[in-house]
Amino acid sequence: MVFKISEICKQYGDNIVLENISLELQGGKVHGILGYNGAGKSTLGKIVGGVIQKDSGHMHLDRMECSNWDVRRAMRSGVFIVDYHSTLLPELTVRENMLYGLNSIKDGSLLSVIRNKKKIVQRLKSELEHYGLECNMDWQISQVSNSMRNILELLRIKLFSPKVVVVDEIDANVNEFYRDRIKKIIRDMADDGVAVLYISHQIQRVMEISDEISAIMDAHLVETVKVADMKPENVIDMMFKITNEHPPKTIVKPQAKILELKHISNNVISDFSLYVREGEIVGVVGLEKEGPASFGELLFSDKYHPKQSGDVLFREKEISLVTPQDAMKAGVIFLDSNVIDQYLFPGQTVRENMLPFAIRVKCRDLETQTKICQSYLDKLSIKAKPEDKIEHISTGHQKKILIAKNILSEGEVFIFANPTDNIDTVSKIDIYNIMNELKMRGRGIILISNDYHEVAGICDVIVVVEDGKVVRKFNNYALHEKELIAWSGQEEERDI
Ligand SMILES: Nc1ncnc2c1ncn2[C@@H]1O[C@H](COP(=O)(O)OP(=O)(O)OP(=O)(O)O)[C@@H](O)[C@H]1O
Any idea where the ABC transporter domain is (predicted)? Predict the structure, then answer.
């Protein structure tokens, strides 16, 4: 089976996103796509999956021309897409989500659909077991971790005997355990004859998972190579001409404690304590395993994780944080990159999305606002104009716009959860530099991340969480990523 993409072009206004892209997705192979933020990777994936339409060019599934290609037609032909934006419905259970939309995928009588439903739930259970995953069919999706949601989406597709699967950045913000499972599922699908289009920024990961790799840059396909013939350095050379190094860690003597969590327990964490001081970056690793938790859900008492005990102190005074808005009032700025959609205002411009309300009220002059916005677009290498609509901006750039917004907010503590997922290598460095700048200005940063390379690179203090408990805290003098991974598996505590 071959899915052939020939001379695909796509443009939005003057912005040429894809120019004459041609490649072949072979059944039984994983084809990786690499490229900077805004390079056009997701656009290509969405065209294959029928989510958006090409301007010109052709696609063939074996001999069949994929004309009038939309999601429904694609799914009925065996072409599926799973991407960063979850399609699972949070208020439905796992079981209900697995069966949702089944009628639109499977043609046939009501009876065969009902028979299929039973089979599908049974097969899902055995797939979960096969991959060593636990997930109750009656859990509501809102109570399932983001990592598990991604896996469920992938397994749901696997159950429909796909021919082509587009996987767009679903493993960027998951920990090693789930990442490994996602890799196995993708490889197993390929072994079953599926053609996989795998989109990611992470060079190493694309190398591990793919049989061949194409690089897209400035709307063009630069090159397609077979992984067996390549070394990682060659791929980096081919595309980025840079190495994946961290900026030097800035040295600042930490001052007064700003935010302190003291012995917090809820249904996910127990006796969880940490603090951040002025001029300090505290890294937290190991939280993702705890289930439905983004750090925000742990920190703020929401409906799923009401605080059972413990205190949150801001400058040594107890405060009550129920929502991120409460925190913002207190000077704690929170960005959970897993759910950037919640922070964006579609229909509004990049400028309106980037500048916090307080700044827009203080400085009503549009020209000044545009200048502030443009300076951050330049600083963070964001490929957008202040007047562009936010929904027309690539995911990675949207995330950088939110980071700029957070930085522009008058906060004392910044909590960033996985800020550099979906961010290309060059822009990651821009973000690390901005964190260092905040630190130099006496702000405190808590960096929740599954990226051990980045945590080991820029954090001053590292907190390791296991089973909802802080099991280790240590000063990070010159720690290497590999040591951090090794330490995460040790029992002993190295206290600061
Ligand atoms: N609906 C749209 N309207 C206008 N421009 C768009 C639209 N969707 C995408 N674009 C533009 O197309 C370009 C490519 O976006 P795309 O999402 O494909 O990039 P990407 O390589 O996947 O980036 P990232 O890694 O940041 O997700 C970007 O410049 C983006 O602003």
Answer: 3-243, 252-492
Asked if residue 42 has its Cβ within 6 Å of ligand 1, the reply is: yes
Tokens, residue 327? 């925190």
Domain 245-331+410-496 has CATH 3.40.50.300: yes
Name which of 221, 235, 234, 78 is nearest 162 in CA terms: 78
Domain 2-239 falls under CATH 3.40.50.300? yes
Per-residue pLDDT tens over the stretch 457-477 = 888 888 888 777 787 787 765
d(CA 38, ligand 1 centre) in Å = 5
SS3 content of the chain, % helix, strand, coil (to 5): 40, 25, 35
| The ligand 1 atom nearest the CA atom of 199 | 22
ipTM: 0.98
Give the long-range contacts of residues 398-401, CB within 8 A, separation 24 or more.
398/340, 398/344, 399/337, 399/340, 399/423, 400/37, 400/427, 400/430, 400/431, 401/350, 401/353, 401/354
Q: Which amino acid is at 488?
A: S
- pTM, two decimals, is 0.66
Ligand 1 neighbour 427 (Cβ under 6 A): no
Residue 324 host element (H or E): helix 324-330
Provide the sign of the torsion angle of the four alpha carbons 427, 437, 420, 88, taken in this order. negative
Identical fold between 2-239 and 245-331+410-496 = yes
